[in-house]
Amino acid sequence: MEKIRIDNLTFQYPLSETLALSGITLSIQESEFVVACGKSGCGKSTLLRQMKKALVPYGEKSGEVRYEGELVEELDPRKDASEIGFVLQNPESQIVTDKVWHELAFGLESLGLPNSVIKRRVAEMASYFGINSWFRKDVASLSGGQKQMLNLASVMAMQPKVLILDEPASQLDPIAATDFLNTVYRINRDLGTTVIISEHRLEDVFPMADRVVVLDKGQVLVEGDPSFVAKDLENRKHPMYYGMPSVMRSFPKEAAEGEKLPLTIREGRLLLEKIMAGKEQDPSEKGKKENTYSHADTETDETGDTDVRRRLKKEERSVQVKELYFRYERTAEPVIRGLNLEIATGELFCLLGGNGSGKSTTLKLLAGLLKPQRGKIERRDGIISALVPQDPQALFTEITVEEEVLEGMADMGAGRQLDDGQKVERVNDLLALMEIEHLRKANPYDLSGGEQQRLAIAKVMAFEPNLLLLDEPTKGLDPFFKRTLGGILKKLTGNGTTVFMVSHDIDFCAQYADICAMFFDGDITSLGPAKSFFCGNSYYTTSANRLVRRWRNDIITCEEAREWIGGQAKPFK
Amino acid sequence: MFSEGIKDHNTFAQLHPVVTTAWFLLVTGVTMFSNAPWVLGLSLVLATVYRILLNGKKDLKGSIILIAGATVLVTLINGLFTHNGATVLFYIGSNRITWEAFAFGLGMSMMFSAVAQWLICFSVITTSDKMIYIFGAVLPVIGLVLSIIFRSIPLLRKRFSDIDAAQKAMGRGQSKGLIRRGRQLIKEISILTAWSLEASIDTADSMTARGYGLHGRTSFHLYRFERRDFLSISYIAALAVAVIVGCIKNASRIYYYPTIRTDISMMAEAGRILFMTAFILLLIFPVLTDLFGEYAWRKYESTI
User: Is A389's CB within 8 Å of B151's CB?
Assistant: First the structure.
């Protein structure tokens, strides 16, 4: 049965010159799992909101959207509320009440259900989502992943037939995100709920999807099963191809001729076995293969060494941390235990690690926001550090982008005052560097997540720091913004700025970092140049590396894997 | 056990919020509308005992400061600024300073401190959930607003500390001068406002998406009215009749002016004794319930 039907939908926001959506026609079937993807600002959110009466934005609209044959704008509000569930991006700001149990009941209270019915539904939901143990807790005490799970559960308590999710996992760490998306998948499988989801983390949702809809500039670019979509984008050489999961991108279309593109590492390995099957017989190739493998192995041995200290020369160092200990309370366990760390001038240093391993605490210590109880942080003379917080909004005070950057220059400290001309010049330089010149008159709050991130960097760069500290800078960014950000960070390090970032984003770090380090239990457990670092890990490594490590352990990025696989596949054909 | 206080992990607090709230309303109400020292004194003593039972020994100091402060302040103010009363102690200028005015001040200070002590106990027993339930029962929207407020407090606090950290990391906010620090604070508050307003758009979306604004909203809660709640409310109601009748018949009041008269009650001796007995039984209800609960728990622990 057709659940949602969109016919020739065109939509324009007031005061906007461009169409947010134009000529969209789409039909979504009962129990289908549909993934909508596209660059930030391509109209995904606008499209999703058209399917929920309560959230349809103001603007000029033509064409129609029907839910079960009824026009969405004519739906009974009660039906709209209970049958169409909508989960938004930010876990924190969607929560309305102070207790978990009350939040679960919120929608049911709106529907005016009696206490006994609510109790039963809430109990069902709490059991289904495994939230029994935190049922009576304050929402403020939950982790980000738990908060988003609560948002999902409280929508599901209303027993919707259609579940719409707008980038629900983009603010979560990878483990919580996978957990969340798997729960969405389980809802789709167990209950037959129709799911329409927009997401950047396509690695997780592509294997779940029945259908993928790619949007570009408010239009449907292509739709179909994931493999078809990826091949089509490759054929068109469309930039959106870059946003496809890296397992898919590792296989050039020639390598997967006549086959479906693999969606998981497992499928990728199987396909690769097939491609390599012919190879193994070739003695010359085999020798070559072993050669590269053993080469990679020795590299692993070098970095697998237990001593993770770098021995940098004094003039190369920006910061040296010696046997640092930190605890938040006298009676608490230390969060940082004997940390030794050296950061070289002009490098991009990525600190990776799980939640609660002490990464962010390390960053705050380096920024001087926390004082260590034991140990030393030695900065080279003349090091000025700047920290970009996880939420860039924490920095914004002005009403336009350019004023925002200018404000960063107020209060520069003695001896570093600039005259107005220099300030204007610097604002222009920074806007150009961060590639946000075209937004100079925009309000910082109107920017997308990636643009806000770049504005925040521009603002803190305004007072000329030479050590930039970033807290999860890729959180919530789409693959394109990540690439832009990566390029910008490289430009900064090229100019001699040292960049130190903490991140969960393995693929980003593999591609752009000079040095990666793994943080665990208050200390660095392994460290090395990006390549040897990831080659030395078996689980905590990029998907490209996991895909091809049986044959080539020295490949870590998707581009390298693609080139290698392409090379292998050609003679086979 | 008692040195740390039993907080809200006690038998009285486990009663249905309607029962505990009714009890507090009754007791503070009677205290507020009384002026006889024996009524106020009893109320004050038991309020203090209960506060210390709940919060532990450390609240003894707080109680003493509160009572002493209120006594000195109210007694002096009333004594020096009220010139009613027949028994003149001395004159300041042409103003009479009377014994009755001081006595009235003393009575009022007892009333104020007793009510304050009861409110402190009330805030321990009535957690945010119960408050939301009680108000939600009257009007669902008030319950929801309270819930949103309780949710916002930790959220705003966290945002503010993020903002403060971000500003400090930019080298702001460490300057000494009062004006500069004030300006920095205003800036941080303005960031907090902008950020929170922006986030509240999401909250509003999430509310309307889940049907907020539909007609006939109900208010969900996790409380059940059990047999012991029924017994407790019956106990309280029975005593309430005796106490309220006593109050109406002036058993809880005296005249301070022009001279102190304690025999203004319209009740016979037996009626007054009944009133006082009922009032005492009412006041000791939570203390007794908790002590009994504590005893039962110890007995349970010793049998395993």
Answer: no
B200 lies within 8 A of chain A by CB:
yes
Other C-beta atoms within 10 Å of A237: how many? 7
Render pLDDT for A441-459 as a digit per residue (tens, 0 to 9). Answer: 999 998 888 889 889 999 9
Give B9's Cβ-side CA count (13 Å radius): 9
Cβ atoms A21, A9 nearer than 8 A: yes
Structural domain for B186, as ranges: 154-209
d(CA A149, CA B114): 46
Overall average pLDDT of the B107-130 stretch: 94
Average pLDDT, chain A: 88
End position of a domain, from candidates B163, B187, B209: B209
Mutation pick from B210, B214, B222, B225 vs chain A, by most beta carbons of A within 10 Å, is B210
Residues B122 and B23 in one domain: yes
Q: Are residues B123 and B247 in the same domain?
A: yes
Q: Are residues B180 and B273 in the same domain?
A: no
Which residue does chain B place closest to A84, by CA atoms? B209
- Domain identity same for B95 and B229: yes
Task: Tell me the per-residue pLDDT of A83-116, one tens digit each, with 9 for 90 and over.
Answer: 999 999 999 999 999 999 999 999 999 999 999 9
**Contact of A261 with A227, CB cutoff 8 Å:** yes
- ipTM associated with this complex: 0.87
Is residue B137, in this structure, part of any structural domain at all?
A: no
Let me know if residue B148 belongs to a domain: no
The confidence score (pLDDT) of residue A280 equals 58
Question: What does the pLDDT read at residue A230?
Answer: 92
Q: Are residues B23 and B166 in the same domain?
A: no
Number of domains in chain B: 2
Residue B32 within a domain: yes
Facing B212 at nearest CB: one of A101, A110, A395 = A110
Same domain, B126 and B198: no
The answer to whether residue B269 scores a pLDDT higher than 50 is yes
A471 band by pLDDT with thresholds 50, 70 and 90 = very high
Q: Is residue B214 part of a domain?
A: no
Q: What is the mean pLDDT of residues B260-278?
A: 89
Contacts with A561 (C-beta within 8 Å, 6 or more apart), sequence order = A246, A250, A544, A545, A547, A548, A555
Same domain for B105 and B249? yes
